[in-house]
Amino acid sequence: MDKAILNPDIQNYIDLNLNSDAASILLKGIPFSNVDSKTLVQQIKAKKRCQKKLPTWFQTENIYYPNKLNIEQTSSEVAADYKASLVSGCSLIDLTGGFGVDTFYFAKHIEKVTHCEINDELSKIVNHNYKTLNISNIECLNDNGIEALKRIDQPFDWIYIDPSRRDDTKKKVFLLSDCTPNVKTFQGLFLKYAKHVMIKTSPLLDIKATQNDLKQIKELHIVAVNNEVKELLWVLERDCKSDFIIKTVNLTKQNKQEFDFKFKDESYALVEYTKPLSYLYEPNAAILKAGAFNSVSSLLDVSKLHKHSHIYTSDILIEFPGRRFKIEKVIHFNKKVFAKERIGKANVTTRNFPLSVGDIRKKLKIKDGGNIYLFFTTNMSDEKIILICSKI
Fold this sequence. Notes:
alpha/beta, Rossmann fold
């Protein structure tokens, strides 16, 4: 950590060059002799990356930024705030602290938080930033989290771990057994020291396979931000005997869409199939990741168009965790039939349909955009149809 970076003149230079081209800065040279040009450019690029993802850090003076990979791997503030709302108590230890965004938000709900980070440079950066952010209830340990847990040898209310999803060659991995540390190996140790354990995993992880790898699962939180699944949060509880609940959430600027269901109930949930009715519903990305296709129909009292279409319909408009549309017209998928509608511009979505969006646009000569929404799908009679909709 080069403390010269924190010089007021250098900090001002960083702010003035947030939108400058890095190559141009290096070619032109920097007006400072006491700091390495590559280090300075790294700070500029890292701060720019944090503008939307980490606004608290971006807006605070004298924040020191780590390398690009650490910024990429950290949670956004939106996601960190959500996961922190799930914890409470006196103590929490973050075994894989990283840039410390999750730890920062945990400290708003927990009296004392311990941040473990094995990388010496990153641990110093995080410690500096917490002081700059006026956070006093976080202790930073430059140590391997597993070894720190054993050495401290005391109970915590919560253990949080976000295993590294990079292998020895820095390639991305996502299976639990390929991540570091391997939580499958250490989950017994975690539950020895804490009644509650939260494990953050890749959104690519297979839910059915993972639930066999983990023990005593109480909840799985599937977190989407602006309809993009960002992380899976597995909450383990010591001596938990109940069937676990899947909680889906889509965090947007406008609202928080939530839908919960029991994992074991999905295969037994009753589904009604029908022709398109007055309204159409498209589940958000968190629900689709959860595979709650039957539970959505059963719990929200909406019907499906087809077993594999995963869009829903009803005659009465309801609140729904996803997008809602008014069905204006239903036509069969036929080029001549569609031509009569004189639609040259529309938003196109496919669900259980043999053609891609690109192929449909080319075949039917539809430009992107406008206020018309077209859903190309298959109905309960296995007919290919087009739903002409307006957004609600």
